[in-house]
Write a structure and sequence with these properties.
By secondary structure, this protein is α/β, with parallel strands linked by helices. The chain folds into 2 domains: 2-172, Rossmann fold; 175-354, Dehydroquinate synthase-like - alpha domain (Dehydroquinate synthase-like, alpha domain), CATH 1.20.1090.10. 43% of the residues lie in helices and 19% in strands. It has 13 helices and 11 strands. Strand 5 (98-103), helix 4 and strand 6 (123-128) form a beta-alpha-beta unit. The longest helix has 21 residues, at 210-230. The protein is globular. The N and C termini lie far apart (43 Å). 46% of the residues are buried.
Length: 355
């Protein structure tokens, strides 16, 4: 089992562990010490196999219940948060209760946001079951929901008490979901570590062994922790993690209205193609480096383009991006493979041309 220590430098001096290994669901009490809580609720969705939920319930030594939500980005909304709040209220949860999020990034966001706002905040535990959530979304303390068609417009910064990553859960993932998770993994290499970028693109995602996946997840978590621990609320270096996300979030929101909605990782891969090309046109990224980026995404089986979305719709969505300041879009761009820069201004003409 791998263990990463997270130390968040904020006024609360938060510390918590990330556990990565095999068969960790059954060991939850020895890892966390669940008996200090009055009761627990497991927040999950309809795609999670009942066997995983039952295994987790059996391992909990305290009174617990389950909330099963509809899956998918389109359900990351206030209605589902209200459903969690109602269960917490109706079942007499108090400030010594625990919310356990078992699922992908959507569940982690909904459950984490519900916990961070119920009674002004109760503890929550992240147990991510998708590769994307294990390598990225469950780490860092961003929780929230989509609102008025804008991704993650409403949310909080609230760290979990721990993250438990059981790679056995990946065996339940459809291949498309699994490959989608590699977009964030590739991004981590592109923004922070060229050697890591080479290693995670050396094979197709499905060709890595379980042992190799554990090493990959550990390294991705370490990269994200480096940024988050120094800059919890995205005032500076944490913005580097946004590479691919300005375009990606716009495409993701718009794709939900089409007949073929894209997964988060798929939209981020398209975002990296666009934002990588912008970097190239601004002479930050060489032609050869951009080609490496493009080939890595293609080799992974991730999309580089989409259809059914108009350029002006993407440009309009970008204007509502929560990372904007004083009406200006702050772009994170690449300055070579393994190095990124943030708060970059880009002319609309260039963005439109690349789109």
């Amino acid at each position: 089992m791998k263990k990463i220590h997270v130390h968040i430098k904020n006024d609360r001096r938060q510390d918590y562990p990330i556990f990565i290994g095999v068969g960790l669901l059954e060991k939850i009490n020895s890892l966390i010490g669940i008996t200090k809580y009055s009761k627990a609720v497991i927040v999950t969705d309809r795609n999670i196999p009942s066997s995983l939920v039952q295994n987790l319930q059996s391992a909990l030594p305290i009174e617990n219940s389950i909330v099963v939500l509809d899956s998918g980005e389109q359900n990351k909304d206030l209605d589902n948060v209200k459903e969690v709040w109602k269960i917490l209220k109706d079942q007499g949860f108090d400030r010594k209760s625990l919310v356990i999020n078992l699922g992908g990034g959507v569940i982690g966001d909904i459950g984490g946001f519900a916990a961070s706002t119920f009674m002004r905040g109760i503890d929550f535990l992240q147990i991510p079951t998708t590769l994307l959530a294990q390598a990225d979304a469950s780490v860092g303390g961003k929780v929230g929901i989509n609102f008025l068609g804008i991704k993650n417009l409403i949310g909080t910064f609230q760290q979990p008490i721990a993250v438990i990553i059981d790679v056995n859960t990946l065996s339940t993932l459809p291949q498309r979901e699994f490959i989608s998770g590699f977009a964030e993994i590739i991004k981590h290499g592109l923004i922070a570590d060229e050697k890591y970028f080479k290693s995670v693109t050396a094979k197709k995602p499905q060709d890595f062994s379980q042992e190799e996946l554990i090493e990959i997840i550990e390294k991705s978590c370490q990269i994200k922790v480096q940024f988050v621990s120094q800059d919890e609320k995205e005032g500076g270096r944490r913005k580097l993690l946004n590479f691919g996300h300005t375009i990606g979030h716009a495409v993701e929101a718009l794709s939900q209205k089409t007949n073929h909605p894209l997964l988060h990782g798929e939209t981020i891969s398209i975002g990296m193609i666009v934002e990588g090309k912008i970097s190239n046109l601004l002479d930050l990224l060489s032609d050869e480096e951009y080609k490496r980026l493009e080939q890595a995404i293609i080799h992974a089986g991730l999309p580089t383009e989409t259809s059914g979305i108009k350029v002006h719709e993407i440009l309009e969505k970008i204007k509502s991006d929560k990372k904007n300041e004083k009406g200006n879009t702050n772009w994170t761009l690449l300055k070579g493979i393994g190095k990124a820069i943030y708060n970059q201004k880009v002319e609309d003409l260039i963005v439109r041309k690349v789109l």
